[in-house]
Design a protein that fits this description.
Layout: E1 3-15, E2 26-39, E3 48-60, E4 65-82, E5 85-95, E6 98-105, E7 108-128, E8 131-136, H1 137-144, E9 153-165, E10 168-177
Antiparallel strand pairs: 1-2, 1-10, 2-3, 3-4, 4-5, 4-6, 5-7, 6-7, 7-8, 7-9, 9-10
């Protein structure tokens, strides 16, 4: 199932030890924010707003380049409504971003890297006539007659920008996803 994930992992707030890390130093950045995701192959799919939370470890290699790696719990999927029935596809992942951070100005960095993701939740929440039920995504596909596969692994190329001020970092990323 192709997915195009907009991870405005986005207003990921990071609390940093200092504004510009010294060359050779390490920092841990807690992250919490919102994720806007949808499914690529479904024209009727709407954006699912979800949580992104985790941490990244960053090494300042040069004044202009740092490398970071982390683990982020990311609520992904999509929403849709057909004939009064609302469906929320919940595909939650633990993503492992590995990024090169290019510091172009004080507090401003551009990010590029790779991101494997591992599926930890795959459900569909269906609401009709005020009643809500939740079923496994594979079961939902089988019962609807769709021959679709739920990938337990996702690979993405994140592209992003971050800006740090007063020890708080705003970070926005767009993930080009393979599944």
């Amino acid at each position: 199932m192709k997915r195009n994930i907009i991870v405005l992992a986005a207003l990921l707030l990071s609390v940093c030890a200092n504004a510009q890390n010294a060359v050779g130093s390490w920092s841990i950045q807690p992250k919490v924010g919102i994720n806007l995701a949808t499914l690529t192959n479904d024209d009727d799919a709407k954006i699912r707003v979800g949580l992104v939370a985790g941490a990244e470890l960053e090494y300042q290699a040069t004044p202009l380049l740092s490398i970071s790696a982390g683990a982020l719990y990311s609520q992904q999927g999509a929403e849709g409504k057909t004939n009064g029935i609302k469906e929320v596809i919940k595909m939650d992942y633990v993503n492992v971003p590995i990024l090169a951070n290019f510091h172009v100005a004080k507090g401003l960095a551009f990010k590029l890297g790779i991101q494997p993701g591992f599926l930890v939740n795959d459900k569909v929440e269906v609401t009709a006539n005020g009643v809500t039920a939740e079923v496994g995504l594979k079961t939902a596909f089988r019962e609807s007659g769709l021959n679709a596969d739920v990938n337990s692994y996702d690979f993405a190329i994140p592209l992003g920008v971050s800006y740090e001020f007063s020890h708080v970092m705003l970070d926005a990323r767009y993930n080009f996803s393979s599944s």
